[in-house]
Amino acid sequence: MKYKNLIIEDTHSPAQESDIKTLERTLGKPLPEDYKAFLRSCNGGYLEYDILLEAGKTSAEYLSFSTLYHVSCKCENEWDSNPFELNQAKQQAGFPNVGVLPIGGDGGSSVLYLDLRKGEQVVASVSGLPQWTGLRQDSALVRVANSFSEYIDKLTISDETIKHHIESFKVTEATAAATIDWFDSAGLQWRTKFAALWNEHVPFKQV
After folding, report:
1. Which tens digit of pLDDT belongs to each residue from 111-122?
2. What is the pTM of this model?
3. CA–CA distance, 201 with 170 (Å, rounded to integer)
4. For residue 53, what are the β-bridge partners?
5. Residue 7 DSSP SS3
6. Phi/psi of residue 18, each to 5°?
7. At a CB cut-off of 8 Å and minimum separation 6, what does 22 contact?
């Protein structure tokens, strides 16, 4: 399905109001209206988009928090559900008792949170990378957006992701059409920037 023009797969049944209220009681804070609107519509899912994180004045990189968690009291022992992930987080030393909710992950150890203690900002706990990568090695807590809506609006598809996908995906009529829809959902600039590469790999569906 689409949410604000973004393609989201593996969505869940719309969140029940009782589940949202139970989560709010556990969290100790009311959820922002924009996040509740997302839960009532998609209730989590998989979205393959990137966001540019600035970990410092000179350090920036694209990351993909491709899994957004769902809420259901019936799934409180299920990975990738808000209740389960919140209970797991509260077992960590120093994790706030009130107002911080895990809402997504990157498939590894980096996690996306709603921090409601002062405002409605979205923050990311980003794990350091191995030295051999030549990239950031220190873990960091980075403010990503001032609200969940702003976070969604900031999502994009990086040039690296586009290039890698064009060069590696199994080309068929169906996958080519799906890829165009996915790329277009983040803007049409790719059609100019990657036209030559795309047309080389997908000669039967030129852009």
Report:
1. 999 999 999 999
2. 0.91
3. 10
4. 61
5. strand
6. -65, -35
7. 73, 83
